[in-house]
């Protein structure tokens, strides 16, 4: 059986939950011919990628999908590219707030996802859930994680596919906010 490592983040930015981890927790133990390993990761520059890489070293998965929250988006958005830039408009969960720093000083300007993101969007839409390809993972911990994992795969496991997808807020997260874009936990 093939191995899939899928991750979701802990809450951050004052939120009590993170829809990425809430959704990942609901996944079955197997999907198709993949054995699924789930991991909750910290919203901390450096530690997020280190956590996923340590788990990947242990599992040697065939695929890695990292999932994160993107408040304001109205659908599931697999990311096309991660850039070699860390710029945080808010501190991470340990108070780190890098500005204009590379993710990896020895890395290329960007990495493209090796997941079949266009097919993923087709399947998500076929399940009547809004989805679109996103061309930016941003510059916060999500981008840092995607870039770090793809750098690692490029160097250590070039036959393992990997990438990142953002999910919107859950309905319960927007109840007392101006923001209205959200999905149910089951849809996410």
Describe this structure in words.
The longest helix is centred in the C-terminal third of the chain and has 16 residues. The chain contains 4 helices and 8 strands; from the N terminus they run βαββαββββααβ. With 188 residues, it is of the alpha/beta class. The strands form 2 sheets. It has a 6-stranded mixed β-sheet, sandwiched between helices. The protein has a two-stranded antiparallel ribbon with strand order 6-7. Helix 2 runs parallel beside helix 4. The radius of gyration is 15 Å and the shape is globular.
Structural class: alpha/beta
Largest sheet: 6 strands, mixed
Number of helices: 4
**Average pLDDT level:** 95
Q: How would you spell out the order of helices and strands?
A: EHEEHEEEEHHE
**Poorly predicted residue ranges:** none
Spatial separation of the terminal alpha carbons: 25 Å
Helical content class: 25-40%
| β-strand amount | 15-25%
Rg is 15 Å
Per DSSP E runs of 2 or more residues, the count of β-strands stands at 8
Task: Give the overall shape, derived from the CA principal axes.
Answer: globular
User: In what order do the strands lie side by side in the largest sheet?
Assistant: 2-3-1-4-8-5
């Amino acid at each position: 059986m093939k191995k899939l490592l899928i991750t979701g983040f802990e809450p951050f930015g004052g939120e009590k939950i993170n829809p990425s981890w809430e959704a990942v927790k609901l996944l079955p133990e197997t999907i198709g011919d993949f054995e699924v390993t789930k991991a909750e990761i910290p919203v901390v520059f450096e530690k997020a990628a280190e956590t996923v890489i340590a788990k990947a070293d242990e599992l040697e998965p065939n695929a890695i999908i990292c999932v994160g929250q993107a408040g304001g988006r109205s659908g599931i958005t697999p990311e096309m590219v991660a850039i070699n830039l860390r710029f945080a408009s808010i501190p991470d969960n340990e108070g780190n707030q890098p500005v204009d720093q590379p993710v990896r000083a020895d890395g290329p300007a960007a990495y493209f996802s090796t997941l079949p993101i266009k097919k993923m969007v087709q399947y998500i839409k076929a399940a009547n859930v809004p989805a679109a390809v996103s061309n930016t993972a941003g510059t916060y911990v999500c981008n840092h994680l995607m870039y770090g994992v793809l750098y690692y795969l490029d160097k250590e496991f070039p036959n393992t596919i990997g990438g990142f997808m953002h999910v919107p807020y859950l309905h319960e997260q927007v109840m007392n906010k101006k923001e209205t874009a959200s999905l149910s936990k089951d849809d996410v």
